[in-house]
Write a structure and sequence with these properties.
This protein is mainly alpha-helical and 155 residues long. It has eight helices and no strands.
């Protein structure tokens, strides 16, 4: 029997006060169920470490998102508290890999670098090749891109 039928049937034959008590109980049960689900989700989230590193290359989710130019993913990870200065096994941070990536358009690269710098990315961290993100800018072949990105670090 559908619940809507039971509700209509009970509304016809039960006093208003009884219907109100039943509806209040139903609302309370729904609120309790929501709290239990919310608590379970918090427990599941506690097992997930947003800054966990991959076994092979040592990339974090933020480093991987930066390397691929995933601006939306980077912003979500930063909002969730991802650490911006963690390094992978080559010593690269997310900032290193955004600058090194040649497949990210300048406007997207600029937005990502701004987001990283705003949340505390350190442009002086040295990778295993002795490069800082700022030094890596000198390796860019496009003069316009290099000039635009250097201005981000100066201003």
């Amino acid at each position: 029997i559908p619940a809507s039928f039971i509700f209509v049937f009970s509304a016809i034959f039960l006093p208003f006060k009884t219907i109100k008590i039943l509806l209040d109980a139903l609302v309370s049960a729904a609120q309790l169920a929501f709290l239990l689900v919310d608590k379970a989700l918090l427990k599941i989230r506690s097992y997930f470490n947003i800054n966990a590193k991959q076994i092979l290359g040592g990339d974090t989710s933020l480093i991987a998102a930066a390397h691929s130019g995933n601006a939306a993913g980077i912003n979500r990870l930063l909002q969730k508290g991802a650490k911006v200065n963690l390094q992978n096994k080559q010593g690269n941070t997310a900032l290193h890999l955004v600058i090194a990536s040649s497949n990210i358009p300048l406007n997207k690269k600029t937005a990502i670098i701004n987001a990283l710098l705003t949340t505390g990315a350190n442009p002086q961290i040295v990778n295993r090749l002795g490069q800082t993100p700022i030094l890596m800018l000198n390796e860019l072949t496009n003069d316009r891109d290099r000039t635009a990105l250097i201005q981000l670090f100066q201003g």
